[in-house]
């Protein structure tokens, strides 16, 4: 274990173990090709632990976003969280492994304090998992015949699935749609509510409704999708006198999708 000389950090535990990973093992062959092909990070397949899906992310030349260039960086990422409530939070402790193929044991780096995985922070791990010089030293056994083996154990200690929230997603360069509904002989209408013919926009079927309230002779408009009305109170009002001479009314509906 003296070969691994990493800066001491609170909440981390380093050890040598004969026990292989319980939850996931990842063998990478032709490891040097990652750097040669300018692959900054390798993402493993998903694996399950503690009722959730996870994956390992290995930066073969260090995490450049963190300014790391002389160590391998390894992280644990929680995945497939789309179905969880917006306020979800998972606290977990985890241990990452690197196989010494010469001695058939594992260098392990463990986060014993635990980390909070949540929507705003899906990834935790170690920027300086192992020095590159040590990793590439053939006598150390971590990289043998251009092959290495990483592993992970994950233990969920706390779960929270409460809370409310929302996500706003803006559409860039949205397509504009316009539909005009022409109502002839408006002054002779007897119906208090009138629906337009259906029209298509943004791969959806819509229709417009027109409502004249007898109590105050004001107008209400709605634009609807999937038979669900969304009424909009307009400031515009048409008095009974105005209604007498208006023989047709054109309602223009514009939107983006």
Question: Layout of SSEs?
Answer:
Blueprint: E1 12-17, E2 24-28, H1 32-36, E3 42-43, E4 47-49, E5 52-59, E6 71-79, E7 89-100, E8 105-118, E9 123-131, H2 132-135, E10 148-160, E11 176-184, E12 193-195, E13 199-201, E14 204-213, E15 218-225, E16 231-237, H3 240-245, E17 248-256
Antiparallel strand pairs: 1-8, 2-10, 3-5, 4-5, 5-6, 6-9, 7-8, 7-10, 11-17, 12-14, 13-14, 14-15, 15-16
Domain MATH: 21-154, 176-257
Region (Disordered): 1-21
Protein name: RESTRICTED TEV MOVEMENT 3-like
List the defining traits of the structure above.
RESTRICTED TEV MOVEMENT 3-like; five-stranded antiparallel β-sheet; MATH/TRAF_dom; TRAF-like; 257 residues; 17 strands; 6% helix; Apoptosis, Tumor Necrosis Factor Receptor Associated Protein 2, Chain A; mainly beta
Q: Any idea what the shape is?
A: elongated
What do we call the CATH homologous superfamily of the largest domain?
Apoptosis, Tumor Necrosis Factor Receptor Associated Protein 2, Chain A
Strand content: over 45%
Number of DSSP strands? Answer: 17
* Total number of domains: 2
Descriptive overview:
- The protein has 257 residues and is mostly beta strands.
- The chain folds into two domains: 12-160, Apoptosis, Tumor Necrosis Factor Receptor Associated Protein 2, Chain A, CATH 2.60.210.10; 176-256, no CATH class.
- Helices cover 6% and strands 51% of the residues.
- The chain is built from three helices and 17 strands.
- The chain has a five-stranded antiparallel β-sheet with strand order 1-8-7-10-2, with no helix packed on it.
- The longest helix has 6 residues, at 240-245.
- The two termini are 59 Å apart.
- Residues 215-219 and 231-249 have low confidence and may be disordered.
- It holds the Pfam family MATH_2.
- Residues 1-21 are annotated as: Disordered.
- Residues 21-154, 176-257 form the MATH domain.
């Amino acid at each position: 274990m003296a070969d691994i000389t990493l800066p001491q950090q609170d909440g981390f535990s380093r050890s040598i173990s004969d026990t292989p990973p319980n939850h996931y093992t990842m063998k990478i062959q032709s490891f040097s090709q990652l750097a040669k092909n300018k692959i900054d990070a390798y993402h493993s397949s998903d694996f399950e632990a503690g009722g959730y899906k996870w994956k390992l992310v290995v930066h073969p030349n260090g995490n450049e976003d963190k300014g790391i260039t002389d160590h391998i960086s390894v992280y644990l990422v929680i995945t497939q969280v789309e179905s969880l409530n917006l306020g979800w939070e998972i606290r977990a402790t985890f241990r990452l492994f690197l196989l010494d193929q010469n001695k058939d044991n594992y260098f392990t780096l463990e986060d014993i304090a635990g980390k909070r995985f949540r929507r705003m922070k899906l990834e935790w791990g170690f920027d300086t998992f192992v020095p590159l010089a040590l990793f590439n030293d053939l006598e150390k056994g971590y990289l043998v015949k251009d092959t290495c083996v990483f592993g992970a154990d994950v233990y969920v200690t706390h779960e929270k699935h409460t809370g409310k929230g929302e996500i706003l997603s803006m559409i860039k360069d949205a397509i504009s749609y316009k539909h005009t509904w022409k109502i002839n002989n408006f002054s002779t209408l007897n119906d208090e509510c009138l629906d337009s013919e259906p029209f298509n926009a943004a791969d959806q079927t819509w229709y417009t409704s027109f409502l004249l309230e007898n109590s105050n002779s004001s107008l209400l408009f709605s634009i609807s999708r999937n038979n669900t009305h969304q009424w909009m109170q307009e400031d515009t009002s048409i008095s009974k006198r105005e209604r007498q001479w208006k023989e047709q009314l054109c309602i223009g509906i514009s939107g983006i999708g």
